[in-house]
Write a structure and sequence with these properties.
Shape: globular
Distance between the termini: 34 Å
Strand content: 15-25%
Strand order of the largest sheet: 4-12-11-10-7-5-6
Number of strands: 16
Radius of gyration: 21 Å
Largest sheet: 7 strands, mixed
Helix content: 25-40%
Bound molecules: pyridoxal-5'-phosphate
Number of helices: 13
Length: about 400
């Protein structure tokens, strides 16, 4: 089937929620993709920071094949080793405590919101609030949407769940004032990915930790995009002056399959009790086996060191390009703002024509999220394609 035929079917039968680039990818290996005509591309997007171990990593493929041929899942009403081992692996590699497995990032955040609200009710708070930052993205389900100020448009999707309060992104004082005795949690990303890669200042995160401690609220860190090695440590908070009470993960967690998780520290790990929450597919055996393989690959000090080194190489190269005004990020999560008047979508198209996949998170911005197994040569190649694509 040709791309033109796919687009004709799309026009008739696919809800138009995404503006797709005009290319059909049919195969991937490590940091490369191939389209239906056999053309090769260098992938600096990794399916939105999903394929952190590279496309079709043989160990992840083997884990999926093995589990798919044995047992796909038995629901959460019976024992199945992959899900339980994954919870153990996740908890011991982060906050200790306990994990709940989901099928997406939005669902992981819904779990965190329910946990924080239930805990607040138990402390006598009738109408608990969750404090979030302007520009945040926490997902598309109604609760996660209400926590995402840019997208939470009551006039389109209302009535949205109440109880979410947003404050400016870079204002520790505003955050301090917003946290009151009604606050169940502060929910933040360490680096706002969908907004265009905006690291949250250490003072803001430290202020969040401090006021949460004072008010007895939870600090929930959305590590869905920043986690799984993306910033050069397994979790972004490891490089920050804070330790959250809850983290949420997804995207790269499943090694390409849909897996999310909400991990809560030991003191709050039993807030959600039998009957409070659930998911039919959450913790399915194939997905959990893939996630265990992905964690095994990514939770590796050598790989994480390379992520920091290659991130610095990429950022350094981008800073040399005249038409780029600002470079932001950490590790291999990098965003740029182009000089005013430059059209990021046109740059993206020129890159695609030259065989490089990059992302446009917003007007005038580009985002780079390569698989974490890129080589220095791949980084240099991307910069070689990018420099003329940005300039012309
Ligand atoms: C992608 C993302 C989500 C939503 O994850 P889905 O799997 O699309 O539901 C939530 N938070 C952050 C920070 C994300 O990057």
């Amino acid at each position: 089937m040709s791309l033109a035929e796919l687009r004709a079917i799309e026009a008739r039968h696919v809800m138009p929620t995404y503006a797709k680039a005009p290319v059909e990818f049919v195969r991937g290996e490590c940091c490369r993709l191939w389209d239906a005509d056999g053309r090769e591309y260098l992938d600096f997007f990794a399916g939105l920071s999903v394929h952190n171990a590279g496309h079709c990593h043989p160990r992840i493929v083997a884990a999926i094949r093995e589990q798919a041929g044995r047992l796909a899942g038995v629901s959460n009403l019976y024992y199945s080793a992959p899900a339980i081992r994954l919870c153990e692996r996740l908890a011991t590699a982060s906050l200790g405590g306990k994990a709940f497995l989901t099928n997406s990032g939005a669902e992981a955040n819904e779990c965190a919101v329910k946990l924080a609200r239930k805990r607040a009710h138990a402390r006598g708070i009738d109408r608990p609030e969750i404090v979030v930052l302007d520009g945040a993205f926490h997902g598309r389900t109604l609760g996660a949407l209400a926590a995402s100020p840019r997208l939470a448009r009551d006039e389109l999707f209302g009535p949205l769940p109440a109880g979410f309060v947003s404050v400016p992104r870079d204002d520790p004082e505003a955050l301090r004032e917003a946290v009151t005795d009604r606050t169940a949690a502060v929910l933040v990303e360490a680096i706002q990915g969908e907004a265009g890669v905006f690291p949250i200042a250490a003072e803001v995160l430290a202020a969040a930790r401090e006021v949460c401690d004072e008010a007895g609220s939870l600090l929930v860190l959305d590590e869905i995009q920043t986690g799984m090695g993306r910033t050069g440590s397994l979790w972004a908070y490891e490089q920050l002056p804070i330790r959250p009470d809850v983290i949420t993960a997804a995207k790269a967690l499943g090694g390409g399959l849909p897996v999310g998780a909400c991990v809560a520290a030991a003191e709050i790990a039993d807030v959600l009790a039998p009957g409070d929450h659930g998911s039919t597919f959450g913790g399915g055996a194939i997905a959990a086996a893939a996630a265990l393989a992905a964690l095994e690959l990514i939770d590796d000090p050598g790989l994480l060191r390379r992520v920091r080194e290659l991130g610095a190489r990429l950022e350094g190269g981008l800073a040399q390009i005249d038409a780029i005004e600002e470079v932001r990020g950490r590790g291999l999560m990098v965003g740029v703002t182009l000089r005013s008047g430059l059209d990021a979508s046109a740059v993206q198209s020129r890159c695609l024509e030259a065989g490089l996949v990059v992302n446009v998170p917003g007007p005038g911005m580009l985002r780079f999220l390569p698989p974490l197994v890129v080589t220095p040569e791949d980084v240099d190649r991307a910069l070689e394609v990018l420099a003329p694509a940005v300039a012309s």
